[in-house]
Design a protein that fits this description.
15 strands; 456 residues; aminotransferase; pyruvate; Aspartate Aminotransferase, domain 1; transferase; alpha/beta; taurine-pyruvate aminotransferase activity; four-stranded mixed β-sheet; Aminotrans_3_PPA_site; Aspartate Aminotransferase, domain 2
Amino acid sequence: MDLMQNDPRTVIEADRAHVWHHLVQHKPFETIDPQIIVEGKGLRVWDISGKEHLDAVSGAVWTVNVGYGRESIADAVREQMVKLCFFAGAKGTIPGAQFAKRLTEKMPGLSRVYYSNSGSEANEKAFKMVRQISHKHHGGKKSKILYRERDYHGTTIACLSAGGQQERNAQYGPFTPGFVEVPHCLEYRAQWDSEEYGIKAAEAIEEVILREGPETIGSLCLEPITAGGGIIVPPKGYWEKVQEICKKYEILLHIDEVVCGLGRTGTWFGYQQFGIQPDIVTMAKGVASGYAAISCCVTTDAVFEQFKDDTDHLGYFRDISTFGGCTSGPTAALENIRIIEDEDLCGNSARMGDYFGSKLDELMDKHQWIGDVRGMGLFRGAELVTDRGTKDPVSEKQVGAIVADCMAQGVIIGATNRSVPGFNNTLLFAPALIATKDDIDQICTAVDGAITRVLG
């Protein structure tokens, strides 16, 4: 395979000298080479040495939902770039209008799309909408935003203020005031003794609301399935009770679909697995499968209408995202949504997700180190413990060794990392929605071998 025209050594040294990588300690690069990925096709990627890897995490951050090498997306983007690459979002563009229509057709009850270029930014927009609604319609009082322990909503200071992962937040304070944490809902790490754990976890949110004062709460921001905090699927009854509580206290329900959106769980959006109707939905990652930068903040008409007031010169949503005006995003997203639809990738995610779950169950039967497996669709996790009785977590170092062992086998998996103190012990899997049984078998074989070698 002709990987690249440039000399690999030159590229590696340029990277080592000049690139500041995400989420990486660079001290080791003084003696070892940074890994450079140069090509992808389907679920496979090749590094600069020519080694092939099966990518079980869709670009390492759960993004490339339709797989690598989709020429139709690249062709559509090129054609649009030549025609019109950009215009500020105060005006409309053809792909912007077309994708907003196609997207909201998949989201009954929601109707307005605000474009930006990252999940963090989409959540910032939602927070600003909530705050402005508070000022316009509630005298500035209904401004607090609730978020859940273990959830993650982005890297900006405001998003970290709504972040339930302490190690992600460490050393970045002080944070934006007005963000209040509610308890997580991971039954495996139960905080209450209850036969109806989902109901109890939702009622714990209501307790926070009553403590803070319902009249001060503007929104509740939750992931449909907690992602980087450990692949936590809320227990039965949780979401229905959460919806009921939000309606009772007139609190906007903001669902962060940055990870779960566009087929990851087996439906177009994760919240659709639970029969709820949010007021605001944010998304990024799989919206264009990484072929272009795009994120969306989607709202109901009821939310949108609160900003239509020409009697107030500050009454509209006074916000801009420069690269929300780049037409490559909605163009790529239009072709991405066509591929998901035409190839029934939501259906494949559900079917292969069931198979993946069964294979992880088999690994759990074999390895005492696996305390819990959980997930939905092609979004799965396996929590590792030293003892199933005590549920004491294995160390983050051991988890890292398992990830490294899989990498050496040519399989890229993920794990909770520098997120929840003492509980960075969950292996994470999110292969592209085109995954086959053979792909899943290869992933599970690699994990099987790695656990045996690292933990015994």
